[in-house]
Predict the 3D structure of the following.
Amino acid sequence: MDQIKTKKHVFSCLFSFFKPYLPPLIAGFILILLSAGFAAAAPVTEGLITTQLTSDAMDLMSGTPGAGIHFEYIFSVVFVLVGLYLANAACSYIYNFCLTNAIQNAMFDLRDAIEKKLQKLPVSYFDKHAYGDILSRITNDVDTLSNALQQSLPQIINAIFVIVFAFIMMFTINVWMALIALVLIPGTVLLSRFIIRKSQRLFQAQQDALGNLNGTVQEKYTGFSEIKLYGKQKEAIEEFQAANRQVCQHGFKAQFISGLMSPLIAFMTYLIIGSIAVLGAVNAINGVMTVGNLQAFIRYIWQIFQPLSQVTQLSATIQSSVAAATRVAQILYEEDMQEQHTSESLANAKGNVSFEQVSFGYSPDKIFIHDLTFRVKSGQTVAIVGPTGAGKTTIINLLLRFYDVTGGAVKIDDVDIRHVPRSELRSNFGMVLQDTWLFHGSIYDNIKYGKDDATEQEIIEAAKIANVHDFILSLPDGYQTFINEEGTNVSQGEKQLITIARAVLADPSILILDEATSSIDTRLEKKLQNAMQNVMEGRTSFVIAHRLSTIRNADLILVMKDGRIAEQGTHEELLRQKGIYETLYNSQFAEEMD
Amino acid sequence: MKLMFRYIMKNKLLMVFNIIGLFGFALVELGIPTVVSSMIDDGIAKQDIAYILWMGLVLLGLALLGSAGTILLCYASAKISTNVARDIRDDIFSKSQTFSHAEYDKFGISSMIIRTTNDVFQLQQFINLVLRTALLSPLMIITSISMTLYTSTSLSAVVGIAIPIMLVAIVIMAAFVKPISERQQKYLDRLNQVSRENLTGVRVIRAFRKEAYEVERFHASNKDFTKETKKIFKLMSLSQPSFVLLLNLAVLGVFIVSSHLIGAGSLEVGQMVAFMDYQFHTMFSFMLFALVFSLYPRARVSAGRITELLKEEPSIHNEAVDMQIPAGKEGTLEFDHVSFAYPHTDKLILHDISFTAKRGETVAIIGSTGCGKSTLIQLIPRLYDVTRGSVSLDGIDVRHYDLDTLRNKIGYIPQKTILFSGTIADNMRFGKHDASHEELEQAAKIAQAYDFIMDKPDQFEEMVYEGGVNMSGGQKQRMSIARAVVRQPEIYIFDDSFSALDFKTDAALRARLKEVTANSIVLIVAQRISSITEADRILVLDGGEIVGCGSHKELLKNCPVYLEIAESQLTKEELEKWTR
């Protein structure tokens, strides 16, 4: 029940994308109808020639006076046939054009719609769903759908028309023989349903085996150092071979069983052609049927056989495309972010931030942050410290309203941030994350991301403040250097400097900094620290801090533990308290203090 | 092609079945028209009902025989193609296990994965298609040409004209499609890239309020992609109707020529009918052939990528030489004027490195990113071989050891921890396959992993999922250390291996490690000075050269590079404390 409902949803969702393109779609269908009609008319017309030739040949043989081939008649039929063939070809060309336009336009709209949807989904959606899964929905699934529609839609419609017309023609030629041919349809349906049911399970097994193989390969290749260092090559090969055997076995079964479909349909077709030939020949002897019509009849059966076996082979494509469409539709039916703001405004905040008895949980039944309260004045620097999972990132999530609080309130300049639109709130923020995010484009454009209408002068100025101007100039293409996908042409530290420049350009009143924990070049680190100092000046700053120097210079240190603020105060105050911070500080820097 | 052929030929018997099956198929496809034609000529013309019924039986026989053939064909082709895929995969994987780091670097792991899985799958599908349909066309063409020639030479001329026209059309089409298809692929990559960036950057995009900008960016790529897609589909949709048109025109040609022949009494009507069917099947199988070979370029790319992998020779060989440990050299690790450049490059990453480490010593290596620290330690277990100079252990060049023996002496804890699917115990036994439970517990305690392991529902039997996703970074790192400890190696190599640990655990772990490493050589590669101040000796690397060597205090005084690093990491007061 539930499933039908979603399937209906999927189709209505898909249909809504085709709606604007109904005229070309309908025109396409009509043309398919015409082309199938022309194709169906051809064999009987060809049969006229055969019949004429047969009687002429018989006359010739029996020596009837004046006997000979009636060329005028034959040529006039040939003339009609040329017309039919050309009309058929023309219709095919045009319907393919119409359908391609309609389908690809609809797919274009679909992709755009997904992209728009992604920008409206709450951040929690991206946290809850695996990145690879979402990506595969918006790339692979849409692709699968597009290809399947493009290939199967015209084929199916065409097949239906061709089959219907062929049967109409066959019935006009001879009802009884047509009825025999009709057996082909239910036969094929039953057969293909049987085989599809069988092969579906086998394909699933094959898919699972492949998945397992992929997993094994992935693991063994990424762990190749370990395998070598611990001398486990033989075991690795054995494990791989076992997985590979599975794939081979299941793959064979799936391919064999699904491959049986067309020989079996062919067998049925052969039998039917055989019986028709016998029956037709007898009819021809009895004078009930012309030889030309017999020939035409047999051609009609071939005409049916072809689309029939094609369509049954499309079943796999159709199944996978329905699955793909379902996954795509699921994204489109996700709920958007909610905006319920009042008339309050936060257009140019000063940057006084307060958390008032905030509680929050990523799922409503598991409250993670409890009763969080603190106040920051405009221009102050807050260092947030604590072990992983203590809730440092959550504070950032709440500040920027990636998530909304469950209880209490976050206020900026005494305005509850839930009372203003998200975009207005965020216009006050700049952000530099540990996982630097730069898009594929020039460094110039990446910095400019912080402010749409920035002038070149402003961009260079921002790069200078971020300590990265000289580095950029040292690159062969300067500001126009492209960041490639892996960002291998620019080191991690330099990338972070670029993101700092981006934040500088945005000129926010509140800044969020996520210090890199490890592994950046020690010389760059100095540059980075200076850059961070520069950018924090005069702004309210929240820093997830790992550097002692940053922590010490902070106006307020929040020591987080298990979703609570265990301690807060300045460095000196906290040391005097001799609490967690003191232990933390001493264990971290004990060796340095000896 | 050569690759596929070689593997296909491993299934000779199946291949024979495959060809028998193909014959069966050709038999019906061409036999049915022949029988029908004789029904018309000999049955209807002579009004012989018994003959017609007899021919009906022949048809039934043909259908049975032909279907048996196609089922055999289906079996053989499925079996051959999956067997070939299995064999190629086995060979690739076995080959990959002989590769050293240089080869992994060269191909890249993700590319190797794709070659082992997708590329082979592509070949499997292509081979199946070739075996089932493409091989049919030569067979059909030969049989039907001889049959058409047998029926009528002049009629064959019509087919003779049609086929080259078809060929030319296919070639022209392919020439047009290729560049468009390449462009389409490029735009698709671009489109996917924008999507990927949108997902990874969701927080940044929201924080900078760039939602509309991203939609616009996507829209632009989408537009380019759609334009090319439309072009390619429209072009491709020309082929089917054109082919049908050509076929139909050929039929007309047959009609006109045969009218004359029948008029002259040199052809019978039934023969004409049969001829048209031959022609239809010949041209149809020809089109299938063309279709399959339009897929060939893609299969060729895959085959090429696989061949490249299979032909690659591992750069590190196991050439054990029997040697005695020289007196007094036991328990020493020595780098003697070592220089190193990555294979196929000229740039020296390490330049003239010499140092010695003895049993019980801790040597730390520090320097900025790219100074060659990690490379240096990778030379010890021969993940790479030196370019000049030598690395020796117990006075014997590492290149003269049996690889397994050499690596068995080393407990290497890499920067990035890799765990394998299996239980925690399985993963720890990686270090020593016959380790007892007590040994595992002991190692876990030393690595500070015991508590969190005991907290898991199944403790040591807890499953580690692929890539260790059910463990935190710190837990994985401790597992990796435990794995090395189980081994009780002669040399411990820590490559920035404490980065994911919190300070308390770090301290506890170091304290416990001291107990077991007392009799081993310990090498530590570090980023942060605070973690190596206690080392017996610190090597400072800069630009691939040793620029300083000594204790923390000494280096602060006499090594400017070290001082610079220290200044960037420590506060003024801390520095003063040390230098005082």
The first strand of chain B starts at residue 332 and ends at 341.
